[in-house]
Design goal:
The complex is a heterodimer.
Chain A: E1 3-6, E2 11-14, E3 26-31, H1 40-49, E4 62-66, H2 75-83, E5 88-89, E6 92-93, E7 147-151, H3 160-164, E8 170-172, E9 179-181, H4 191-195, E10 201-204, E11 209-212, H5 217-220, H6 227-230, E12 237-241, H7 253-260, E13 265-266, E14 277-280, H8 287-294, H9 298-306, H10 312-320, E15 330-334, E16 337-341, E17 347-352, E18 363-364, E19 369-370
Parallel strand pairs in A: 3-14
Antiparallel strand pairs in A: 1-2, 3-12, 4-7, 5-6, 8-9, 10-11, 13-14, 15-16, 16-17, 18-19
Chain B: H1 2-26, E1 37-42, E2 63-66, E3 68-69, E4 84-91, E5 95-103, E6 120-126, E7 143-149, H2 150-158, H3 163-166, H4 193-196, H5 200-203, E8 217-222, E9 229-230, E10 237-243, E11 246-254, E12 270-278, E13 290-291, E14 295-299, H6 305-311, H7 322-325, H8 327-360
Parallel strand pairs in B: 1-4, 1-14
Antiparallel strand pairs in B: 2-4, 3-13, 4-5, 5-11, 6-7, 6-12, 7-8, 8-9, 10-11, 12-13, 12-14
The chains are: A alpha+beta, B alpha+beta.
Chain lengths: ~375, ~350
């Protein structure tokens, strides 16, 4: 089996195909501290792509409440249990990926969710990690916690769906790294549904083929960010190109957050797919839980996040999140403003880091009236 | 270099397959022979092309074929559920038909929910009948696959298996560009091209996604693992029936067809045939299947006419018969009858025309 280098694990790993890193790779960063599970992303996606017959249960974008939520039910807990305890040595993964732990006759370790696993897309909504005893709400910090985890397909660099498809019906686009299921080649074997650890390949019982998130590629082709990103009312998301660690562009938003500040982390990097959706971990959640979910970079990421008020570059970039529908190729922060630029280098958005503060007089002489709100 | 490499590869696979064949033969399955044979028996007249229960099948001797789980390529089936099946074949000089029968206690006739898989069976025929069809074929030596699917059979027998078949009490009030009312019906309410666009597999012409089925059997060509592709022309008919815990499935096709990558049969000809079966309850699909080794196929030719004469000789008459002597009288009677008949018909036509005029007036 070919060896590929997975920088998220800081080591080589087995993968059925040699590495084929695309010219550009779609990536996104989601800030979990800001997500309120309003599901606007879910419905933006649903209305765009999965309104068809046979797609009723499908949410290519979903938001689940952690620790107990999951769509499909227990998608991650079940696989973590199958994989068993694995370890990290500093920044290097010493455990097995799902490819290395593949049982005989399979491309990857995985399971096919059962029909009923899909019927509660928001199970565990707002449930906390434990019972809130009387009076606890009066003191901070709280011992119980929960957080919201919005998920789309990770458009992985080493996709398990692609590895498992015996038809080679799944491909990764050279121009943007988007992973797609060819609807002409697919024969509905559901090997991808079984192998994808994130369970983002789903079976359409009417067309009898598998389907998945397409990263709104028609929008990307027009220099726009995806539906789930541009419709996010909390402005928690941003799309961008991600480069390999040796080719980092410090002015590219995702590179900056992932590679430079290391404030955004992959979801379950130990699975070994080198996934391309990154998360800023929630600062109120116990570190061990976050480490299981986002790997060994958690403590550093939390520290960077907590100190963002002193980091004008990162703060400026945070403010560009959700501030434009267009694809931000590069950003700069100067003179108290954050600027976003398109692929040609033209400015597409400009956001002040501090909103200007206007003070109006309490007594408006011209209108001879008094203001209740003067700022 | 390239050609040599390819040849080596082909040779390697052939040796490998021979090994598998030998292993299967050595597995000690009761009826497995070192060189299993299948004779397609000639019968005069129409073949039971869509009737697995026809009495005609009794004319073909059944061959019990051992199946082994597919463990050559990923994904594999490590533990099989169908140890053997029974094969028969008939031909009438124009059509050839195969009948497979196997035990399967569970009927898996649909694949419309996340975790349900259909039962299925297939026949593999090398396009070049002189070379055994090795494991889905190899580049340059394609195989034909006739793939019967239980869910297609259900679509044909009971109507297209739609959302309401999976969830009878579920409905959604809106699908873009669909006509009709909830719960809506595929395909008629989605006939519009814009509505179909939301059923992508259907819109792009994937044969798996077409709601209008003509036959439960898909005809494919394969040049190696993962290459099976639906043929542009589909000419295999058939039918599968599940009864008392057993599937029996007929596959039938004209012996000669005009397609480029299609196996052809000639009366008296020889070839190879392999079979495969899938058990939906065990989530068997694609490469997760049990397969047989190649059977040597002989297509029996119709008996020669000379033999027919010798089998049923017509005795020569000793003297001119009554018919021969008075044939002219018969001719006269026949002519008279014809004239009378014409007159009656003419009269009838006249009356009918009049009646018709009356009706239209």
């Amino acid at each position: 089996m070919p060896k590929v280098f997975n920088w998220q694990l800081n080591r080589e790993m087995d993968y059925p195909y040699p590495a084929a890193i695309p010219k550009k790779q779609f990536a996104a960063v989601f800030d979990l501290n800001k997500c309120i599970a309003c599901q606007t992303c879910t419905f933006a996606c649903k209305n765009s792509w999965t309104v068809g017959r046979g797609q009723e249960f499908m949410f290519w974008n979903n938001v689940e409440t952690k620790p107990y939520g999951g769509y499909p039910i227990a998608w991650d807990a079940k696989l973590l249990e199958m994989l068993g305890p694995q370890g990290w040595d500093a920044g290097t993964y010493t455990g097995k990926t799902i490819f290395e732990a593949a049982p005989a006759g399979r491309a990857a370790l995985g399971f096919l969710p059962e029909e009923l696993d899909w019927i509660h897309p928001n199970i565990g909504e707002d449930e906390t990690s434990g019972i809130v005893p009387g009076g606890m709400h009066m003191t901070i910090p709280h011992d119980v916690w929960n957080f919201y985890l919005p998920r789309i397909c990770n458009h992985c660099s080493f996709p398990a769906c692609l590895a498992a498809c015996p038809r080679k019906a799944i491909y990764k686009r050279k121009e943007d790294g988007v992973v797609l299921i060819d609807q002409e080649r697919c024969r509905g074997y559901r090997e991808c549904n079984r192998a994808c650890p994130y369970k983002k390949a789903m079976y359409n019982g009417i067309t009898r083929l598998s389907e998945k998130c397409i990263a709104c590629f028609p929008m990307i082709e027009q220099g726009r960010q995806t539906q789930c990103i541009v419709n996010c009312i909390g402005k928690i998301r941003i799309a961008g190109w991600i480069r390999q660690p040796k080719d980092i562009d410090e002015e590219a938003p995702v590179d900056f957050m992932v590679h430079v500040r290391k404030v955004a982390l992959p979801l379950y990097p130990q699975f070994g797919l080198m996934m391309n959706v990154y998360y800023m971990p929630p600062i109120h959640v116990p570190v061990p839980y976050l480490q299981q979910m986002f790997g060994p970079g958690v403590e550093h990421a939390l520290e960077v996040y907590r100190n963002v008020k002193d980091d004008e570059q990162l703060l400026g970039l945070f403010l560009l999140m959700g501030s434009t529908d267009r694809w931000v190729d590069k950003f700069r922060v100067k003179d108290g403003k954050a600027f976003g630029y398109d692929a040609k280098g033209s400015e597409i958005v400009r956001v002040p880091i501090k909103e200007p503060n206007f003070v109006r007089p309490f007594h408006d002489v011209a209108r001879n009236t008094f203001r209740h709100n003067i700022t | 270099m390239r050609i040599t490499g390819q040849k080596l590869w082909v040779a390697g696979i052939a040796v490998f397959a021979a090994g598998i064949g030998a292993a299967m033969a050595g597995a000690g399955v009761a009826s497995a022979q070192a060189q299993p044979q299948l004779r397609s028996v000639y019968v005069a007249g129409a073949l039971p092309v869509t009737d697995p229960t026809s009495a005609s099948w009794a004319q073909a001797a059944p061959v019990n074929v051992a199946l082994t789980p597919q463990i050559v390529t990923v994904p594999m089936l490590l533990k099989g559920t169908i140890p053997s099946l029974e094969v028969r074949s008939l031909n009438n000089g124009d059509w050839i038909a195969f009948r497979l029968e196997w035990e399967d206690s569970s009927l898996d006739g649909t694949a419309i929910t996340q975790d349900k898989f259909r039962d299925a069976a297939a026949i593999q025929l090398p396009v070049d009948p002189s070379i055994p069809g090795v494991c889905m074929g190899v580049r340059g030596q394609p195989v034909n696959l006739w793939h019967w699917k239980a869910d297609w059979q259900t679509d044909i027998d009971a109507g297209f298996q739609d959302l309401t078949n999976a969830y009878p009490n579920f409905w959604k009030d809106y699908y873009p560009f669909a006509v009709g009312k909830p719960p809506f019906v595929v395909p008629q309410d989605f006939a519009d091209a814009d509505a179909r666009r939301y059923l992508v597999g259907w819109a792009v012409g994937n044969p798996l996604s077409q709601p209008a089925r003509v036959t439960p059997i898909e005809e494919l060509v394969a040049h190696g693992f993962g290459t099976a592709a639906s043929q542009s022309s589909q000419s295999v008919l058939g039918r599968g029936q599940w009864q008392n815990g057993r599937w029996s499935v007929v596959f039938a096709r004209p012996m000669t067809t005009s397609g480029p990558d299609e196996a052809q049969f000639t009366p008296g000809g020889k070839g190879f045939v392999a079979v495969a079966a899938w058990n939906g309850s065990n989530q068997e699909v694609g490469g997760r299947k049990q397969i047989s080794a190649d059977l040597a196929l002989t297509v029996a030719a119709p008996p020669a006419p000379a033999q027919q004469v010798s089998q049923a000789p017509i005795p020569a008459p000793a003297e001119p018969s009554f018919v021969k002597r008075y044939w002219w009288a018969g001719a006269v009677v026949l002519a008279a009858l014809l004239v009378a008949g014409a007159a009656v018909l003419g009269d009838l036509y006249g009356r009918l025309s009049a009646a018709e005029r009356k009706v239209t007036e």
